[in-house]
Amino acid sequence: MGIRLRAWDVLVPASIYALGVVELLSVQPGGWEWALLLEGVASVLLVLRRRFPLVSGTSATLVVLTMPWAGTELNDVSAPILVMAVSCYSFARWIAGYRGLAGIAVILAVLASDYMFADDRMHDLSDVVFALALLSPPYVFGRVVRRLADQSEQLRRQQALIRDQAVREERDRIARELHDVIAHSLSAMVVQTAAAQDLVRLDPARAVELLDNVADTGRRALAETGRLLHLIRDDGDELGLRPAPGLADLPALVADFRAHGLDVEADLDLPAAPLTGGADVSAYRVVQEALTNALKYADGPVRLRVAAGPDRLVISCANRVGRAHAQGSGLGLQGMAERVSLLGGTLRTGDTPETGFVLDVDIPLAVEGAR
């Protein structure tokens, strides 16, 4: 599975290496040729710090900390300090909890071995304070940035929920108004039609006038209904004003998610004939929800498989989940499980090292027809 690199993933290590090259070529301390190579390797490792922060940051720092063994003293160059700072920041920014402290512990242990075995100078408590002062600020800054990012994401979701709630409340109000308009108009039309039926022989002119009023009332009701329906119409078809979708619409659904940037590898073995209504629309909604979750949380391609047999429908969706993504609420999976359960099917989820998050749905098609 490919790793999505951002500009900063490459720009920061490249800048550190560029500064290191200029510094080494200018000062040319002992073993500077080896130092050029080691700083280059460390910079390459830092490119993956967002995807594999603990491995990348620890490895990059350990590489530059071997420089004293190659003849370049750490106090002769400053690029290793930048490598350690970026690594400690990554431990806090891209790792949940405090597991990143394990990387700092390894760095401190190797740094202590450098002081004891590769540095001939005398060392005391001030060196410990210096090491802690060097590694702690980037880590603390990373924790602050991660906390702010999490709060921003939580605020964004809360705002989305509030907007959705406001939209639903407004649509409920419009729906009540629509009910009142139709009920009032139909009542008036029934009364006037009944009166016209009584007058059609006794007073044809009056009957025609009443029927004209019925037609006017109907036209006004249609116009008002059209206006209200236009207000509550939505692209997601939450109100069900469009024909219910089914498995035949899955290719268009997959194409729509691809247009939104999701890398979908779809294997669609669709039935030749439409399924019964309940199974058809529920299967479509399950796939739609699975791809929606993948669009939010997937890190890499999404493998979707839909296979319809004589008596069963199988849906499988697998994708890796990015470590930087927050955990979802689980409401989408709960909704899918309820849909599948009503059809007598099963829904299973899990994580595997090979494919990441896996969603498997099995729907017995005979259940719907038997009811």
UniProtKB/TrEMBL annotation:
> GO terms for CC?
membrane
In terms of superkingdom, the source organism counts as: Bacteria
Signal peptide range in chain numbering: none
Query: What Pfam families does this protein map onto?
Result: HATPase_c, HisKA_3
Q: What is its EC number?
A: 2.7.13.3
Enzyme class of the recorded protein, top EC level: transferase
Histidine kinase/HSP90-like ATPase domain location, by residue? 282-365
Keywords, alphabetical: ATP-binding, Kinase, Membrane, Nucleotide-binding, Phosphoprotein, Transferase, Transmembrane, Transmembrane helix, Two-component regulatory system
Domain Signal transduction histidine kinase subgroup 3 dimerisation and phosphoacceptor stretches: 170-235
Gene3D superfamilies linked to this entry: 1.20.5.1930, Histidine kinase-like ATPase, C-terminal domain
For this chain, one GO molecular function annotation is:
phosphorelay sensor kinase activity
Q: Which reaction does it catalyse?
A: ATP + protein L-histidine = ADP + protein N-phospho-L-histidine
Which residue ranges run through the membrane?
A: 101-118, 130-149
Q: Which InterPro entries match?
A: HATPase_C_sf, HATPase_dom, Sensor_HK_TwoCompSys, Sig_transdc_His_kin_sub3_dim/P
Which protein is depicted? Answer: histidine kinase
Report the source organism.
Nocardioides guangzhouensis
